[in-house]
Amino acid sequence: MNWSIYLPIAGNSANILLLLGLGGAVGFLSGLFGVGGGFLMTPLLIMFGIPPVVAAASDSNQIVAASTSATYAHYRMGNVDFKMGLLLLIGGVIGGAFGVQLIKILRALGNADFVIKITYVVMLGVVGAYMFLESLQSLRHKPGATETVETTKPSFYVRAVQALPWQMSFPKSGVTLSPILPVILGVFVGILAAIMGVGGGFIMVPVMVYMLRMPMHVVVGTSLFQILFTCVNVTILQSATNHTVDIVLAVLLLLGSTIGAQFGARLSRRLKGDQLKIILASVVLLVMVQMLVGLILPPHVMLAYKGGH
Amino acid sequence: MRFTLLILSTLFFALPNAQAGAGRGSGSVDPVELLVVPNALHITESFKGARVTISADIPRDAAAVVELKGAALDNHLLRKGRRGGLWMSVGEVNVVGVPSLYLAMSTPGQTLGKGKEKNLGYGAIESRAQFKGSLPKGGKAVLFQQFLKLKESEGKYGLFPGTLKVENTQDGLSTVTGQLRLPGSIAVGDYQMILSVLKNGKVLEQKSAQLKVDVKGVTALLISLARLHGALYGLLAVVVAFAAGFGMGFVFKGKSAH
User: Fold this and answer.
1) Which of A17, A69, B125, B129 could join B245 in a cystine, given CB atoms 3.0 to 4.6 angstroms apart?
2) Residue of B nearest to A62 (CA)
């Protein structure tokens, strides 16, 4: 039986089972951790011969499906803080627009590639290492505990957050803070996401956990809600301006990812917050190491197509 | 008037034959015929590359080279280099005037561009290519080798010496046959299959045939929708994604109650 399919925009053929499997695996991680999975899927697609620009754009399209499926699953479990998600989304859109301009300047200066790769390695390394060590410490000290409770006197950061104006309550997340903070953090993540060309879930999740002090299960659902709208925007923009979304590739990936996301969302309910964090940290660190090795070892082919193909 | 027309028509039919016959020694055999099967490829949903069979009759004591060439293309590339211990893109280079696809095979014992036949193989491509932009330390020669490596990794360039099979026939001719594997990433366009008949490294005769690659069916429809109505295509992609996401959500909704 012929398991090959021609991808019209990528201009290449691929194995159907491989794409379904890839989608399923990344969708599972998406539902489990609340990340879009772009930081995993795009490099994997490039590895299998999909031009980079088509891989990134089509991945955004499949993330729409996976995050719709996973957001819906988390919404039914009461894990989505829409109020917080909207504020982060506003900040993300502003930051994304700023980041795109920044990339344009860097490209004109000729060192965008260096900045993107270094940002990837540094961000993945810092986020992964911090989450890993913090979760490990937490698991060792309080075996069986699900969420950490602040008992010590407030830190400088907590006092600064409490000093911000227009304090409001976010009942779903169980926190009270100024809407300025999620908007600013959204801007920060939006800039990084634009530079790195990803949805930003793997940065957004630690930001929500450590800076907004939201419980892990609500973080997962809310992050997915925010990623969903970011990727809808990216899919339409990429289709209209660059014509790089391959709908056949996206459909195959999303068939796998929507199923995978459901299983991931279910498993996330069974795991404790710290367990989830430590697994995500391990995945992030693995990707960071793989990228770092790619930067250190000489490439097999010394030329690449400008803009993918 | 009739006499002038007669002379003109005689010249018209005689000239191409005279050109084709140039270089052939006395006692040459019938003109070489090149057969390409199939001579048209249609890219559809299940396309994963294709095999093209070539056959031709050549003089018994001659060798043959078959080349498949795509239209000349400008390649905008990024060159990788080491900066501060890390490998990254260090400059842009343009490789101009090289074929989009180049596959060549020959009869056993016949080299491809390494002997006297300098106008065949990669050497011929390099002599016509132009290199612009940030060249590496070794200059154009090193860049061309890197370019070949890139194209060969995609299956778009390849040399297959000795892969044409030769069978002697009764009338002083040899039949050469071979197969070329075209990659799944082959672009739409017209390709030229060229057969060169050689003796002692010198080209005696050349014949060419066309290979047409086009796109059909749903694949063609999607490509034209994406290119001509990008925003509509994007909306369609989002609607499909939403439908799949919610659909799967509903399917799993019942199961999650347990």
Assistant:
1) A69
2) B241
